[in-house]
Design goal:
alpha+beta, five-stranded antiparallel sheet
C-alpha cells in the first residue's frame, strides 16, 4: 500500500474527540483591505493571497498586487499581534483586457530562485522577490488558465538539490513545463486542453479539466483518465495523450494504446512506462515524433520532444497561441472523430479539487451538484483508489489538507494529526451561510462516519451568502500567539478569604516581588501560546488566519461545556461522565510541546477539582461508592496541589501552609478554586451532614493525602516544604479525628479503629512534617503514647521517657495502645541509646527494679553510650534494684571474659534468642533477610560477622545473638575493649557443645552462623564449609576457615600462630573446591572457583582439579591456576637440575680427593680387611 510506504498508517489517538472542542479557530489578519482604486468603480475583491518572509502579497480583482510588510508586535501590547503596513501597490498590466477579466488570478512564489509568477487576466508574468520588480524583460505567457504544479516532493529548499524549480502553466490546449531560474526556459509541452488545476509529485501530476480528473506522466507524456468531477455527467473522456504525431497508418505495428479497450481508469501507469521504455529501446529510425508544438517556433512546424524534453528560453512570442497547425492535431486516415462533449452551463459545472496528502497519493472530490454532498477519493500514483472515502456535507467551494506546522523538539514522528478542511454552504432558517467543515483524513474510522467539526465563517455584508471564500496554504508559515493559552496557563497567586493572615505569609516590606513575579509568569505564559500556521482564508476585503486550536484551549472548552451555571453565575450541575471520559482521553494523550504538556496537566487538575467540588455539594443520597471511586482516581491522576483541596474541607482548612510569597497556581485553576470557596461560604448549611463527610469524603481525602506523601522528594514539586507540611499536618489531624470518632463506638467500629490507629502510628513513626504542629495536635487529642512515638522519631530520649512515665503514673492516654511491659521494653532500648548519664541512672535503676532482666541490660549492653564503672553500677543496683545484681554480674563475666560463667551465659543468651525466634515470625524473617541481603552483595564484601556487626538491628535479641556468637567462637571476636591477656585466655573457652546443639537444632535454618561454629568445633568441616558457601555465601570466611583449620582459629592470636597444618589445609581446600563447584549461580561459580584455584594453587593437585572441573570450561577460566601450576613445575624441575648438578660436583670433588690420597699411599684389600702398603 502507498500509505505503508510513506509512513502514513493508523496513528495513536491523541486528542479528545469532542464535538464542542473545535480543532481550528479563525483570527482576523486584515479587515477592510484598501482594494478600491480610482480607475475602478466596480466593487473590488481579494482574489489571491500569498505570504513569505514577512511579506504579504494580496491580488485583487482590479489587477493589482498590494504588498504589505509585517512589523513585529509592540512588546507593550498584551495581544502581541504583529501589524502590517502597505509597502506598495503594483498594477499588473496584462495584454488581455476582456470584459470577463477577473484581475489577479494566482500568485506563485519561488523563494528558492527569488522569483514570483503572477497570473492576471489570463497572462502570466514574472517578477523578482520581494519588491516584485519585473524579471526576464517582457517575457509573458498569454491565454493562461492556471499556473502552479511545483513538485511537492521538493517544496523545501534543499542545498543538496540545486535543481531549479519547474512549474506548470496551463494554456488553452496544452500544459507548458517551464524551468524558472536565471531565465524562464521551456522544458516541454504536453497536450492537455482545458486544464483547470493540477498537483504534482515527481513526474506524476494529477490534473483536472472542466469535466474529469486524470493522471499525467509529465516525463513521458502519458495520461490515465480517472473519473468525472460530477457523477451526473455521463460523458467520460477516454482518450489519452498521443505518443506519435504521424498518422497511425505509418506505424502499423504500433498497438492502439488509446483505444477504449486498452486504456481504462485502472490501467497501471507503471505498465505504460515500461512499455514506453521497451519502445525506446528500438532503433533511432523508428522513433516517433511528438505531437506537442514548440511555442518558440513561429513557422508552426513540428519539433521532436523527447522523454527528457528540450529546454528552450521562453520569449515574448511564446504568447502567440493562434497557430492553425498546432491548435488542431492531425487526424489519422480513416479515423472517426469523437462526438463533441455536451455543453454544460457554468452553474452546472463543479469546481475540481486536487490536493496531495502524501508523496504517493492525491485526494480528489466528486459530486453531483453544488448543493449535494461531495465525496473525497484517494488515488495513488498508479491510478488506483486507496484508503476509504471522505464524505462532505456539501460539495466544497475550497479544500485544503493541513498538517502540523510546529517544530517543537518534543514532537514524535507519527503522532501528528492531519485534517482536511473544506469551505461549503450551510442552510439554516432559510438562509445560506458559509462555514468550514473539518475532519481527519489520516485515520480509518471503519464503518463509522468520520467525526467532523464545524466552524462558522464571520462574513458581513449584504452579499455574504454569495461571497466566495477561499482557503490556501501560504508559502511560509507565520508565528502567532494564542492569548487564551496564556490566560489559562499563567501562574497567579491564589487569593481567597479562607486563608488566615498567618497562612498568607504575613505582611512583607517588599511587595515589588509580586509584580515582578506576575510579569515573569505573564512573559512565560505568552511564550506558551506561540503557534505556526500557513493557512489563510479570504473573502471580499477580509483576510483571516486559520489556526490550530491549541490543545489547552480545546480541553478547557470541553470542561466548560461540561458545566451548567446557575442564575448567580456559579456552577450548578456538572456532567461527571463527560469529565471522566475527558480524563481518560487525557491519560492516552502524548504532549508534543511544553505548552501541551502543561495544558494536559492543567486540564487534569481542573477536572479533578471540578469533580471534588461537585462531590462536596452533592446530595448525600447521590454520594455512592462509584462516585467516590471515580473522584478519588481523578484526584490522584490529576496531581492537584493538595492545599487547594484542603481549602475546600472545613475540618482541615486550618492546616494549609504557604510560603511568604503565597500559593501560585494556573489562572484557570484559581478561578475554579475561588468559585468553590465562595460557594462554601454561602452554602455552609447545605453541605453534607457530618457522618457522610467523615466516613466517605474524609476517607477519600485521606487516601489522596497518602498518595501525595509518596511524592516527597520529587524535584518537580513547587513549594515542597509547605506542600508536604500541609499534607502531613492535615493527614495527622484527619487520622486523629477518625480514630477518636471510631473509639467512641468501640463495639461497632473496633476493626476500623485498629486500622486507623495503625495508620496513625505509621505516620508518626516516619514524621517529616512540622514538629510543633504535630505535638500540639497530639496533646489536643490526648494521644500520649503516639506523642512518645513522635519523640522517638526525633530521638528526644528525655521527652520519650518523660512521656512514658506520664502514662505509667496514670495520666489519661486516649486509646491505651501500650501496656506497662511494652513501655518497659522501650525504656530499656532508649536508655541504651542516650548519652545522658543522669537519665541512665534514674530510669535504668527504676526499670531494673520493675523488670530486672530489662533493667540490667541498660548497664550491660556493650552498645550503651553511657559507660558506668561496674562498682558504681553494682552499688546503684544494690541500693535501688537488688534483684538485678546477679544478672549484671553475668554481664561482667561476659564483658570481662570470666570464663567460669561461660555455660551460664550461653544458656542465658540462648534463652533470649530462641524465645524470640519461637514467638516472632518477624525475627525469623529478619534473620533470613540478613542472609539474603548478605548473599546479594557482590564481591568484594565483608565477612558475614562483620556485616551484621556493622548493621545490627535495634532489637535486643540481635545483641544477644552477637554475644552468643562471640562465646561460641572463643570469646574475643567481637570484644573491642578486652585486654590482650583476656583475649588470649578467651581462646581456650570451653563449654558443652552437645547441649548447645540440642537447643539450636529446631532453628538450624535461622541460626546458620551458630551451626557453622559448632560443626567446625566437632570436626565436621565439610558441613561447615557447605553452610559458609551455600547458606551464607561468605566465601572469604570459608577460605579463612581452610587456612586456620576451623572456626576457633579465627578467634584470637596472630594468623601465623593459628595456621593449620599443611595436610589439613589441603583437605579443607579440597572440600571447599567441591562446594564452590556446586554454587548455583554460574557467574559466581566461575569467579569463586577460578579465584580459589589461582590463589591457592599450591594446595591442589592438578590432576584432581582437572578431573573435577567440567570439560566445557575454557582454559581462560583456569588460566591463573594453570599458570601457577606450570610455574611450580618449572621451578621444581629447575631445582631438581640444580640439585643433580650440585650432587655431581660433590661426587667429582670426593673422587678427586680420593685419587689424591690413593696416589700418595697404596692399600691392599684382604680377607681380614684393608692393609696399607708401605
Amino acid at each position: 500500500m502507498a500509505s505503508e510506504d510513506n509512513g502514513v498508517g493508523p496513528r495513536k489517538k491523541r486528542r479528545v474527540d469532542d464535538a464542542k472542542a473545535a480543532p481550528y479557530v479563525l483570527r482576523q489578519l486584515l479587515d477592510k483591505v484598501p482594494l478600491a482604486t480610482e480607475d475602478h468603480s466596480a466593487k473590488v475583491i481579494i482574489t489571491c493571497v500569498e505570504y513569505w518572509n514577512e511579506n504579504l502579497y494580496i491580488g485583487t480583482s482590479a489587477g493589482e498586487i498590494l504588498h504589505f510588510v509585517c512589523l513585529p508586535a509592540d512588546p507593550s501590547d498584551e495581544s502581541n499581534e504583529p501589524s502590517f503596513i502597505l509597502a506598495s501597490r503594483l498594477p499588473i498590466r496584462s495584454s488581455q483586457n476582456s470584459p470577463t477579466a477577473n484581475g489577479v488570478q494566482q500568485i506563485l512564489l519561488l523563494p528558492m530562485v527569488n522569483k514570483a509568477c503572477i497570473l492576471c487576466n489570463g497572462v502570466t508574468t514574472f517578477y523578482l522577490l520581494p519588491e516584485l520588480s519585473p524579471a526576464f524583460g517582457n517575457t509573458k505567457v498569454s491565454h493562461c488558465r492556471w499556473l502552479g504544479g511545483l513538485d511537492l516532493n521538493r517544496m523545501v529548499d534543499d542545498p543538496e538539490n540545486p535543481e531549479k524549480p519547474v512549474i506548470m502553466i496551463a494554456v488553452q490546449n496544452r500544459i507548458m513545463l517551464v524551468r524558472i531560474g536565471d531565465e524562464a526556459r521551456l522544458v516541454r509541452n504536453i497536450e492537455f486542453p482545458g486544464c483547470l488545476v493540477a498537483s504534482r509529485r515527481g513526474t506524476i501530476a494529477c490534473v483536472a479539466d472542466p469535466h474529469t480528473y486524470s493522471l499525467l506522466e509529465v516525463e513521458h507524456q502519458q495520461k490515465i483518465p480517472l473519473f468525472p468531477i460530477s457523477s451526473s455527467q455521463e460523458v467520460v473522456e477516454i482518450s489519452s495523450v498521443e505518443d506519435e504525431r504521424s498518422p497511425p497508418a505509418s506505424h502499423p505495428s504500433s498497438p492502439p494504446t488509446n483505444s477504449p479497450g486498452h486504456h481504462t481508469r485502472n490501467t497501471s501507469l507503471n505498465a505504460i512506462v515500461n512499455k514506453l521504455q521497451q519502445n525506446q529501446s528500438s532503433t533511432h529510425g523508428s522513433r516517433p515524433e511528438s505531437v506537442t508544438p514548440d511555442l518558440t517556433t513561429t513557422s508552426g512546424a513540428s519539433s521532436r520532444s523527447s522523454s527528457r524534453g528540450r529546454e528552450r528560453t521562453i520569449s515574448p512570442s511564446d504568447s502567440n497561441e493562434s497557430r492553425p497547425r498546432s491548435s488542431q492535431p492531425p487526424q489519422s486516415d480513416g479515423a472517426k472523430p469523437l462526438p463533441p462533449l455536451p455543453k454544460l452551463s457554468a452553474s452546472q459545472l463543479l469546481r475540481p479539487h486536487i490536493v496531495s496528502p502524501t508523496a504517493s497519493e492525491f485526494l480528489l472530490v466528486t459530486g453531483t451538484e453544488k448543493s449535494e454532498p461531495g465525496v473525497g477519493m484517494f488515488v495513488n500514483i498508479d491510478g488506483d483508489v486507496v484508503r476509504g472515502t471522505i464524505n462532505f456535507h456539501r460539495y466544497p467551494d475550497s479544500l485544503i489538507i493541513d498538517g502540523s506546522e510546529d517544530n517543537d523538539s518534543m514532537q514524535t514522528p507519527g503522532a501528528l494529526e492531519e485534517y482536511v478542511i473544506a469551505v461549503m454552504d450551510f442552510e439554516e432558517d432559510g438562509k445560506t451561510y458559509k462555514r468550514l467543515e473539518v475532519q481527519r483524513w489520516d485515520v480509518d474510522p471503519g464503518e463509522d462516519e468520520r467525526p467532523k467539526a464545524w466552524l462558522d465563517i464571520p462574513l458581513v455584508g449584504d452579499d455574504s451568502d454569495s461571497a466566495e471564500v477561499v482557503l490556501r496554504h501560504t508559502n511560509s508559515p507565520s508565528q502567532l500567539e494564542f492569548t487564551e493559552v496564556s490566560k489559562l496557563l499563567r501562574m497567579v497567586r491564589l487569593k481567597t478569604p479562607l486563608l488566615s493572615p498567618s497562612q498568607k505569609g504575613g505582611a512583607s516590606s517588599e511587595r515589588g516581588w509580586e509584580a515582578e513575579r506576575d510579569a515573569e509568569e505573564a512573559k512565560f505564559a505568552r511564550s506558551l501560546g506561540g503557534i505556526k500556521s500557513s493557512l489563510i482564508m479570504w473573502s471580499g476585503d477580509q483576510i483571516w488566519r486559520l489556526l490550530r486550536n491549541p490543545l489547552t484551549v480545546q480541553l478547557d472548552s470541553a470542561l466548560q461545556n461540561a458545566q451548567t451555571c446557575g442564575e448567580d453565575g456559579t456552577t450548578a450541575t456538572l456532567q461527571r461522565n463527560a469529565i471522566l471520559s475527558l480524563m481518560q482521553s487525557i491519560k492516552t494523550a502524548e504532549p508534543r510541546s511544553e505548552a501541551e504538556y502543561l495544558g494536559l496537566n492543567y486540564a487534569k487538575q481542573k477536572a479533578s477539582l471540578l469533580l471534588f467540588g461537585d462531590l462536596l455539594f452533592m446530595e448525600s443520597a447521590s454520594t455512592n461508592k462509584e462516585v467516590i471511586k471515580s473522584t478519588e482516581k481523578a484526584l490522584v491522576d490529576g496531581n492537584l496541589d493538595p492545599r487547594i483541596l484542603l481549602l475546600l474541607v472545613p475540618l482541615l482548612r486550618c492546616e494549609v501552609l504557604q510560603g511568604p510569597k503565597g500559593i501560585w497556581i494556573h489562572a484557570g485553576l484559581a478561578a475554579v478554586a475561588e468559585d468553590y470557596t465562595k460557594r462554601l461560604e454561602k452554602e455552609k448549611e447545605n453541605l453534607p451532614d457530618g457522618d457522610v463527610l467523615t466516613s466517605t469524603v474524609l476517607n477519600l481525602v485521606k487516601r489522596f493525602l497518602l498518595s501525595w506523601q509518596q511524592k516527597r522528594g520529587y524535584g518537580s514539586i513547587t513549594d515542597e516544604t509547605y506542600v508536604f507540611d500541609s499534607v502531613d499536618a492535615a493527614l495527622l489531624h484527619l487520622l486523629l479525628e477518625q480514630v477518636s470518632s471510631s473509639e467512641q463506638n468501640a463495639k461497632s467500629a473496633a476493626a476500623a479503629a485498629a486500622s486507623v490507629r495503625t495508620e496513625l502510628n505509621q505516620l508518626v513513626d516516619s514524621w517529616k512534617g512540622n514538629f510543633e504542629r504535630a505535638v500540639a495536635l497530639l496533646e489536643e487529642y490526648r494521644r500520649l503514647y503516639v506523642l512518645s512515638r513522635l519523640y522517638q522519631s526525633r530521638k528526644m530520649f528525655g521527652n520519650v521517657l518523660k512521656t512514658w512515665r506520664r502514662i505509667v503514673d496514670g495520666e489519661p492516654d486516649a486509646g491505651s495502645e501500650v501496656t506497662t511491659k511494652g513501655i518497659e521494653a522501650q525504656m530499656r532500648r532508649y536508655l541504651v541509646r542516650t548519652k545522658d548519664a543522669q537519665l541512665v541512672e534514674e530510669y535504668g535503676s527504676w526499670l531494673a527494679a520493675r523488670n530486672p532482666s530489662l533493667g540490667v541490660q541498660v548497664f550491660a549492653d556493650n552498645t550503651s553510650r553511657v559507660k558506668l564503672e561496674p562498682t558504681d553500677v553494682v552499688a546503684l543496683l544494690k541500693k535501688r534494684a537488688p534483684n538485678a545484681v546477679q544478672i549484671y554480674l553475668e554481664y561482667l563475666v561476659f564483658s570481662k571474659n570470666y570464663t567460669q560463667y561461660a555455660d551460664d551465659l550461653i544458656s542465658y543468651y540462648l534463652d533470649t534468642v530462641l524465645s524470640v525466634l519461637e514467638s516472632s515470625p518477624a525475627a525469623r524473617t529478619s534473620l533470613s533477610e540478613s542472609y539474603s541481603t548478605y548473599r546479594a552483595l557482590r564481591p568484594p564484601k565483608p565477612t558475614y560477622l562483620n556485616f551484621i556487626t556493622e548493621n545490627t538491628p535495634a532489637e535486643a535479641w540481635w545483641q544477644s545473638r552477637l554475644r552468643l556468637l562471640q562465646l561460641l567462637a572463643g570469646g574475643s571476636l567481637f570484644s573491642k575493649t578486652a585486654s590482650a591477656t583476656a583475649s588470649s585466655s578467651s581462646s581456650v573457652l570451653t563449654y558443652s557443645i552437645p547441649a548447645v546443639l540440642a537447643r539450636i537444632e529446631p532453628f538450624q535454618n535461622e541460626l546458620v552462623s551458630e551451626s557453622i561454629i559448632l560443626d567446625g568445633l566437632q570436626g565436621r568441616h565439610r558441613e561447615a564449609l557447605r553452610l559458609l558457601t551455600h547458606g551464607l555465601g561468605d566465601y572469604d570466611s570459608a577460605i579463612r576457615y581452610c587456612l586456620l583449620g576451623g572456626p576457633r582459629g579465627s578467634s584470637g592470636g596472630s594468623a601465623d600462630a593459628n595456621m593449620a597444618s599443611k595436610d589439613l589445609q589441603r583437605e579443607l581446600f579440597r572440600h571447599l573446591l567441591h562446594e564452590f563447584l556446586a554454587i548455583r549461580d554460574l557467574s559466581d561459580r566461575l569467579d569463586r572457583t577460578s579465584d580459589l584455584l589461582a590463589r591457592f594453587a599450591a594446595w591442589f593437585d592438578v590432576g584432581e582439579v582437572l578431573a573435577l572441573v567440567p570439560d566445557e570450561w575454557s582454559v581462560e577460566i583456569l588460566g591463573g591456576f594453570l599458570m601457577a601450576v606450570l610455574r611450580s613445575l618449572v621451578a621444581q624441575g629447575r631445582e631438581a637440575r640444580i640439585e643433580r648438578a650440585l650432587c655431581a660436583s660433590l661426587n667429582l670433588r670426593v673422587g678427586c680427593e680420593y685419587i689424591e690420597v690413593a696416589e700418595k699411599e697404596a692399600f691392599i684389600e684382604e680377607e681380614g680387611g684393608v692393609r696399607r702398603v708401605s
